[in-house]
Amino acid sequence: MLVEMKVKEFIAELASDSPAPGGGSVSAVSGALAAGLVAMVCRLTIGKKGYEEVQSEMEQALAKAEALHQKLTQLVDDDTNAFNEVMAAFKMPKETEEEKEKRKAAIQEAYKKAADVPYTIAKTCLEVLTLAEGIVNKVNTNAISDIGVASLAAHTGLEGAVMNVKINLPSIKDETYVNNRKREIEEFLKQGGASRDKIYEAVCKMLEG
């Protein structure tokens, strides 16, 4: 499992000539790091003097951030596994007509999964952004730069995951599926960009005093 590797090992694997892990897994890592930072900021706010009124809200946000962190961590491996399934489908036998049909169906199913995983990564990164936007003006100001970095990392994960959805769509023949995914990911980008900008503006305002 990729997530069990040391950081140096993961980076080395990423830099190798193996096509996976690739951009999808990196997008999930970026999102997981973002969720981790949000969780850290919540912890640095909970129990601190001057933030008593937001204690309950921070505890709820912490629980959400932890759940998002765990989900995105799992998606690091899911993305690479999905790519490997595409490769496996292409290696299926194609001697008889029956084998050709089975192979064709398996390839289409694998491509959908290869699009579904980064779609989920993008959607989950958007959830991280939405969570960060909701608490940015309430967290411990000593950690405000951290939530700013979290928003940038989450948005990077979102945009990267969307690219990995898009690269698989031309290989999928189900037009309804393709059109739905195109519409949904464009909405993710719109919402995510808006959240990132709002967080960035709030963070810069606090940093500048």
Strand content: under 5%
CATH topology: Four Helix Bundle (Hemerythrin (Met), subunit A)
Main sheet?
A: none
Which class do the helix and strand fractions yield? mainly alpha
- Stretches where pLDDT is under 50 for at least 5 consecutive residues are none
CATH architecture: Up-down Bundle
Q: Distance between the terminal alpha carbons, to the nearest Å?
A: 44 Å
What attributes does this structure have?
single chain, 209 residues, mainly alpha, Four Helix Bundle (Hemerythrin (Met), subunit A)
Spell out the blueprint of helices and strands.
Blueprint: H1 7-15, H2 23-45, H3 55-90, H4 97-135, H5 144-166, H6 175-207
Helix pairs in contact: 2-3, 2-4, 2-5, 3-4, 4-5, 4-6, 5-6
How would you describe this protein?
- The protein is mainly α.
- Helix 2 (23-45) packs parallel to helix 4 and helix 4 packs parallel to helix 6.
- It is 78% helix and 0% strand.
- It has one domain (20-207): Four Helix Bundle (Hemerythrin (Met), subunit A).
- The protein is elongated, with a radius of gyration of 20 Å.
- GO terms for molecular function: catalytic activity.
- Keywords: Coiled coil.
- InterPro entries: Cyclodeamin/CycHdrlase (IPR007044), Formintransfe-cycloase-like_sf (IPR036178).
Short structural summary:
With 209 residues, the chain is an all-alpha fold.
